[in-house]
Amino acid sequence: MINNTFKLHKGIAAYDFHDHYAVLGLPLNANSQQIRQRYLQIAKTLHPDVCTHADSEKAVRFLSRMVNPSYNLLIQERERTEYEAILKLLAKRLMKKREAVNPSFPVAQHLLKNPSNGIYLQAVQDLAKVQYSDLDRVIERTEYLSELNLVFALVQEGYGVATPPPEPIIEVPTPPPAPAQPSTAELLQQAQQFIKEKQWTMALRDLRAVIQAEPDHSNAHALLGVVYMHQKLQGMAKISFQQALKYDPQNSIALEYLPQVSDSGNAKDKAKKGGFFGWLGGGG
């Protein structure tokens, strides 16, 4: 059993199912050889001799309470087959109930509307590379993986975006005005400042809010790509730059950095020299 301290709350895990594939950083179509290879990689990463002294105890807990139980289930063919059948039933149940699926991870949102096995596999691979590199972000990144797996499971069962029936009009009292929220322009400006200060998590939050309000905001997608490059998520960065160019083929940020996405070394050197911040009017 997985201790509640390590319980996930998004994706497949949001429906009271353990996402064993997400825990191992694997797609739902991984075979037994891939499962074993991935387990050995994680075990090496979490080994006390590899981790710093401060992280060694936490690493051991992740290995014993999350990684080992998931591996022990998936490596057994019969157990894995039964588990996959349960995941299919979950996907069919959600479709039958027409339950809305609203992932928070931008790539999962994209795949829900534009299914692509290639993008799905690349996104899982990119997240797996950094999944256990920062023990404070293991749960967050594993939840992103679980959202990707949920979308993949739904798409495999023929999930499509259906128009919900119109809701009846009910007269309700006018609520008091809500507190003023920042405009998309203010959020974008704030995100640019966070990027200059290298506060990637805060920049990611504001850029997602902009894209949620204006899905076709080219600059927001481009800046999101910059954040992903700094987080070493090259596949997601590529998708974000492509989205930016989809809405504005002349977007200077996307045009400059899209060619560098596949070359992480050059991108890293560029960041150290301040190249990412030149267009923000600041230094590196």
Q: How would you sum up this structure, described in words?
A:
This protein is mainly alpha-helical. It folds into 2 domains: 153 residues, DnaJ domain (Helix Hairpins, Orthogonal Bundle); 96 residues, Alpha Horseshoe (Serine Threonine Protein Phosphatase 5, Tetratricopeptide repeat), CATH 1.25.40.10. The model has no long low-confidence stretch (mean pLDDT 83).
In short:
The protein is mainly α and 284 residues long.
Helix and strand layout, with pairings?
Elements: H1 20-23, H2 32-45, H3 53-74, H4 77-96, H5 106-113, H6 117-130, H7 138-156, H8 184-196, H9 200-213, H10 218-230, H11 234-247, H12 252-257, H13 264-272
Helix pairs in contact: 2-3, 5-7, 6-7, 6-11, 8-9, 9-10, 10-11
Helix content: 55-70%
Task: Please compute the radius of gyration using only Cα atoms.
Answer: 21 Å
CATH topology group of the largest domain = Helix Hairpins
Structural class: mainly alpha
Major sheet attributes: none
In the CATH scheme, the class of the largest domain would be Mainly Alpha
**How much beta, percentage-wise?**
under 5%
Strand elements, count: 0
Average pLDDT rating: 83
